[in-house]
Design brief:
Largest sheet: none
Radius of gyration: 25 Å
Number of helices: 3
Distance between the termini: 43 Å
Length: about 100
């Protein structure tokens, strides 16, 4: 990197350019890592679903709906003493926990 006349100091523009270059290199490295992962998944016969890679809207709506169902089942627990409804609530809670772990 160049100097602006004072020893040990660099020009602010050069500094910003160097940071931008490093960020670009890091982003490219991450793209390569993800591309290799997806290639390997595809090679192993695993479908590549876009939604697990991001918090996509359809998955968020499903999580919200399951969460609402759990809340209703919890609220009505004392009104409807049903083992089946309790089991359903627990299964839905487990689904949300499993989804959050992915």
């Amino acid at each position: 990197m160049g100097h602006n006349g004072d020893a040990g100091k660099i020009d602010l523009r050069e500094y910003v350019a160097e940071i931008a270059k490093e960020l670009t290199e890091r982003i490219e490295h991450q793209r390569e890592v993800l591309d290799n992962f997806l290639t390997e998944q595809q090679r192993q016969g695993h479908p590549i679903d876009y939604c697990p890679l991001i918090d996509c809207h359809p998955k968020q709506r499903l999580r919200d709906g399951i969460g609402e169902a759990i809340a209703v089942l919890e609220e009505t627990r004392s009104s409807f003493k049903s083992k089946r409804l309790e089991d359903l609530r627990r299964k839905l809670e487990a689904l949300l926990l499993e989804e959050g772990a992915q």
